[in-house]
């Protein structure tokens, strides 16, 4: 169930179809940056005393998973908390 009117959905779809590949890539890039910024903000709110390194490691765990980050960086989210 959508709270967006069908006409608006169609207009948005038409706009996306009319976009160039570069425009679509720019939108995806902007959305990704926004998601990362929101995730960092959430981490900083939950861990206000975290160093920048700890914020980056927690973000990396969210993005790549705890196993990869533990293997690649030796940073264990289960010990550090996430």
How far the N terminus sits from the C terminus, by CA atoms, comes to 33 Å
Assembly level: single chain
Globally, the shape reads elongated
Number of separate helices:
5
Order of helices and strands: HHHHH
Task: Tell me about this structure.
With 82 residues, the chain is mainly alpha-helical. 78% of the residues lie in helices and 0% in strands. The model has no long low-confidence stretch (mean pLDDT 93). The protein has helices at residues 6-18, 21-46, 52-64, 66-73, 77-80. The radius of gyration is 18 Å and the shape is elongated.
Summarize the structure.
With 82 residues, the protein is an all-alpha fold. It contains 5 helices and no strands. 78% of the residues lie in helices and 0% in strands.
Any chance you could write out the topology, listing elements then pairs?
Layout: H1 6-18, H2 21-46, H3 52-64, H4 66-73, H5 77-80
Structural features:
single chain, 82 residues, mainly alpha, elongated
